[in-house]
From TrEMBL:
Family, per entry: Belongs to the small Tim family.
One GO cellular component, as annotated: mitochondrial inner membrane
Quaternary state and interactors: Heterohexamer.
Membrane-protein topology: Peripheral membrane protein
Protein name: Mitochondrial import inner membrane translocase subunit
Amino acid sequence: MDGFDNLNASEKAEATELQRMIAIEQQKAQFQAQVHTFTDVCWDKCVDSPGSKLDYRTETCLQSCVERFIDTTLTITNRFTQMVQKGAH
């Protein structure tokens, strides 16, 4: 039972589309939260004192920090996906 049993075909299609749009917005919010998190973490780690422009060391540190953060997130996500797929079999 999907909660749409009492709806006609048009209403079911609208409800399905609404669920899809909500899922997309949730993904956008999760992405923005991730960006906010690694911005905070990397800023605190790499920026000693803000100036009018970033020096080479700070820029390199920020780039490396963000790349590590993204790589780690992807690794964890892929591992979790593998665990879920193994559990489904």
